[in-house]
Amino acid sequence: MSDDAPYLPRTAAPVQARPAPSWAKKKPPKSKASNRPKVTAPKYPAPRDPHQHAQKIAETVIEAWYQSFGGSSIDVPLGTVAALALLRNIPGLADWILNLQPHELPQLFKEIYLGHWINRPDLIDRAVRLHDWAWDPDPDPQQLRAVHAVTNRAINTGLLDLTGHDDVWRRSEADVLSPLLTGLRHKSDKKWRGEYHTPACVTDLMANITIDKDFTKPGMSFREPAVGSGTMFRSVACRLRELGLDPHDFHWYGNDIDSLSAGCAAVNAIIWDLGPNCFIGCANSLAPEDDYAKTLTEARDSVKQRDTAVDAATTIAATRNAIRLLDQISTPKENASA
């Protein structure tokens, strides 16, 4: 830890409130099969241990993916669960999602990721491998059926009950993406990559030992050169909150050489609310160059792109509104009365 690490100046967030996404405002289109029965989320015996619950979710999702012949692109089921984990579990949401058709799911996932991109473009850009597939203009129907199976299985196993809480304490009880990522990877692939995620019981113990209230002060930095899906950050954030400290008051720097792991850590940073000073990079921490400087530069670029896009959208909306007002003013009264 150090208390002299540089931080990224944050650009002011857009003033105007973002309208609710389409999936939150209107009902999904009716299926051609009008007599299809409505699906509801079943009651399930959720494990008492949140880590066991996360493991159970991973096992059922992996089973659903391969039983549905989803293919070898593990970023697709991983990105599906990551998107659902970013949702807050409002009443009726689970049932609404369960009644969506396979071809309707990519639009849902795109709007989830775009909604968070407005606030943290750097983290969503880092997780691009988890959601890039949803923008495919010509998706594979079989893959969509597998995504549909994964979505249903994740919700029915209680994903939203684990990650959908408004209370960040509850959202931070477990890392859902770590067991899913390691379970989807082939044994030989994990061995070649040297990818072995540290168990939560170990990271919790390390955090309890190293994070001391008398020593840990706001402004300090936590650096993880092999961040994986961010499990160590989760444990540290939980420990800080136990001590009455706010993770937003600290700086978080995490690197991982694997882009999928870095993407999972970026999504988890949002779920666990690590704050505005959390930066995740995809880089080799053993390289001689300063990879955190590269991470900060990429984060700044993401913020600039977000601001440019928001400014362009605001200009377009204002122009359309002005044209509409001009049309109303220039319309003859007799035509308006007619």
Short description:
The chain has 338 residues and is mainly α. Helix content is 55%, strand content 4%.
Describe the structure.
The protein is mainly alpha-helical and 338 residues long. The chain has 2 domains: 22-27 and 39-295, no CATH class; 296-337. It has 17 helices and 3 strands. A 3-stranded parallel β-sheet has the order 1-2-3, sandwiched between helices. Helix 15 (259-271) links the parallel strand 2 and strand 3 (278-282). It is globular. The model is unreliable at 1-15 (pLDDT under 50).
Short descriptors:
single chain, 2 domains, disordered N terminus, 338 residues, 3 strands, mainly alpha
Q: Report the biggest beta sheet as strand number plus sense, adding barrel if it closes.
A: 3 strands, parallel
User: Would you tell me the structural class of the helices and strands?
Assistant: mainly alpha
Query: How far from one another are the termini?
Result: 73 Å
Low-confidence stretches: 1-15
Percent range for β-strand residues: under 5%
**What is the mean predicted local confidence, pLDDT?**
86
Question: Radius of gyration over alpha carbons?
Answer: 22 Å
Give me the count of strands: 3
What does the overall shape look like?
A: globular
Q: How many distinct folded domains?
A: 2
